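USER:
I would value a second opinion on how I read folds in token form. Give me a protein, with the fold worked out from its sequence. Write it directly below this note and I will take it from there.

ASSISTANT:
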Amino acid sequence: MKAFTSPSGFYAVEHPNDWNDSREENIVNICPPDESGAVTLSAYHGSGATLEVGLQVFTNTFKDYTVLSSWQPAVADTWTGFTAEFAQSDATSRRIWLATCAHRKAILVLVTANDIEVAMQFRRPIYQAILDSLVIPQSEAGDD
């Protein structure tokens, strides 16, 4: 596994060595070699970076998707938040989305993992491992 730390230092994740990470402003994408899917991360810092704001962003983003698993509380060593799963369908394919809204002090990290349904069936453990590796460091969260 390869470690990736956001340029701001607000979060870190691990991903397979053969997956590529790229950054465009505040958005980081980590893609499998065939680029059929991605883990996308975005971090926000400040007094407005709350779980409520994150859930509102995701509610707007996924409003037209099929809910496969509604928002459930999630707790990790370095953050608390919520997770859910959605499906996006069009005439030719179905895409599965795993969403995580993670929060620690003044840092909010929004994470999605998505892939076509067939690929998600065999890559789910990899996507889940990347999501599970999310760390929001103590020093950056301001609770030293």
Notes: The chain has a mean pLDDT of 93. The radius of gyration is 15 Å. Strands lie at 2-5, 12-15, 20-24, 27-31, 38-45, 66-75, 80-89, 94-104, 107-116. The helical segments are 51-61, 117-132, 138-141.
